[in-house]
Please model this.
Amino acid sequence: MTTEIDVKTAGILSEPSPSTLGLRQHVLSPLETLAQSISTIAPSTTPLLTIPLVCALAGSATWLAYLLALVCMVLMAFCIAIFARDSASPGSLYAYTRATLPPVFAFLSAWALLFAYITTAASMIGGMLNYSYASVGGLAKYMPPMAFAIVVTGCVIWIAYRDIKISAQCMLWIEGVTICLITIVLGAILWRHGFHVDTAQFRLHRSSIPGVRLGVILAVFSFVGFESATTLGAEARQPLKTIPRAVVQSALLAGFFFVACSYTEVLGFAGTGLNLGTNVTPLRVLSSSIGLGPLGPIIDVGVMISMFACMLACVIASARILLLMAHHGLVHRHLRKTHSGHETPWVAGLVAGILVVLPAIGLMQRHVDGADIYGWMGSLAVYGFLTAYGFVAVSLPVHLHRRGRLTLGAWLLAGAAGLATLLAMLGSLFPVPPAPLRYLPYLYCAYLLSGVAWYVLSNRRGELAA
Model:
């Protein structure tokens, strides 16, 4: 019987069937599938952590930086959605690349995407550590940073192991409640200012082209992870419909939310006499300025929980990529194991959790604070995501040509998405950032080279699947 995700008849390389993967099939609703992408983006963290950083560079043009980033990410979302309408697999972008490009590029796509999810989750540990100790200062006396990281990661591993539906519902409620609270504050700010147009922002007052360009690069980091719903190919209901919708919807919804937040935060800070670009608790300041002071600490707690949801989403995505890589012989075969009762890739999830917590603990041992862990790991994650996105843009014309559907519009879409990805990558490298950020590209390149060495060794041993 032909199934909806019969990728073999679609002309894609032979993949393990959903039944042989051992995952629970077709259990996630469209809303729960969307929750995976939304939680990986962690949109509620952007108004507190990323928008002030973008504002420090782009000034009153912060909204424009996010609008340009939105255009770039939506282009990529449409590219990914085309693949997602033709096949569904836990391998995400790796599976799409594997079907079109030479095997070594497919492996690099998987290697880069795994790196991106792991480092994103590690950055969330730093973010939670920073905000939890800032909000509850006495917490540091009772739980040292390394113990905090281990406890948080242990909770993430347990939820990911227990049930994919519980995980999805947990992520959905956490992110939804926090975004609603942020929206209340921002709506009150607009009400207080009389819903007038802030002409200073539209005139790009005190902004520069280089500042906006660098701001766009930082704004892109707010979006990365929107594609993670593609890792639920076996578990989503009607995956060929719900997954591409989730990918596009998450990019669009997050993008509009970011543009609105950036515009409103700049507007709100204009009357406080404070600098948004250097403020570490912007929503607390804005809440107090409009008489909603009690909401500030509540939002801070919600954002910390949102970071936990992002960690969970990243571990779930990483585990499913490792699962498929194990079936292809790219990693140890024991990572193919799934729990017979929970139908989750528990071994891959455990390994993913360990990989997440190790770099965070290593940095903590060197007395790096939570804010720097967030920034450094997040910057590394961008390289991994952009690499995987770039491979998808290159793969799209090949994919459509094989199916006789290649059009001029598809060429333009793939070209625009690929160019946007390339410019984002170059923008993160030039001008050369200060230390230690300047060393991160070399660290990422070393990681990719180690992946190539692993691939060559596995290929010589004949361990790779056809």
